[in-house]
Design a protein that fits this description.
Helix 12 packs across helix 13. Helices cover 70% and strands 1% of the residues. With 405 residues, the protein is an all-alpha fold.
Length: 405
Amino acid sequence: MNKISSLIERYQLSHFIILAVIIFIVMPLALDSFRLNMVGKYLTYAFVALGLVLCWGYGGILSLGQGVFFGIGGYCMAMFLKLEASSPENTSIQSTPGIPDFMDWNQLTELPWFWEPFHSFAFTIVAILVLPAIFAFIIGVAMFKRRVGGVYFAIITQAIAAILTILIIGQQGYTGGVNGITDLRTLHGWDIRTDEAKTILYFVNGALLFVCLFAARYIIRSKLGRLLVAMREREDRVRFSGYDVSSFKIFIFCAAASISAIGGAMFTLQVGFMSPTFVGTGPSIEMVIFCALGGRLAILGAVYGALVVNWAKTSFSESFPELWLFAMGALFIGVVMAFPNGLAGLYQTYIAPWLQRFVPEKFHWIITGRSQEENPELPESLQEEKEPSAEDKKSTQGDLSHAGN
């Protein structure tokens, strides 16, 4: 038992274990099937918030278009599921059997070439991970190689989200248009519409989220994580130290895109459809709010932020649908002004010290649950130069006067 405890303390796993207990034990026991499915949907948004922690919190890259990558992953999975649901037997009443119903309604007579590879589940999985990364790579090369960043990059990503939404809606015969891709029934013959299937998908969703959490934790605790912080704080110094800043930015932006796409694919499975409403600027900004509320420097905070905001959204929108957007804006402004580090900062600053008063000192690591590596300092060569003291200034002036003589 002591060995397990020491391993948990050594690798700072206490807060991961608490989150795992909440997701895999507390939620399934406390909620009915409908509410559990809702929480499963909320967890898919946590993937996007986690990606934002990496690229915004640590890399200093604020993207207002993460819904694009969420949507790419969701549409890839939806295309595979739709093709499975559109077998010639299931679509025999159509004028062109074997193609999705919305294509038949728009008088297409054959399956488009870019739909053909999605008959393969293996190709679909690869596409979910690779296509968003390729798209992010193209954006990153175009922007970061030209040193475009800050508010300009945020506006450009928002514009890309708006353009992609318009493109999806306009190509109704190929994408399902404003309705999206709906009526998704089975995954390799397994009916994903039943309560039992939704529960299983919830656990798969949680497991994949933890895989991404540990991958993000590995990045943050590595040399790359320290370089990301250095780029965020003193990009010019990192560049003058010989590092290719744009390459690191492109990498972390692509990683965040792939993580977001996994969430989109799981959203399609969990909910049973995908539409352009999850791709546009509105959802993308909401996803930034999930990250900001949870704490943009805390990977676990991203999960809690997604859960809290979406639970509040569901609760308030059911009772006060007209006021929800105002409540969301007020929540975001209030958190940023009062707690700039989000719920994670609130916990570390106020709640954890209060809890430590009731726990023996040797167990304080359970409460803090945060290692130095998870919020690394700048490398020594990249830190701010210290302001010289009065004695140093006086000594320097004396040396200069002697040199002048």
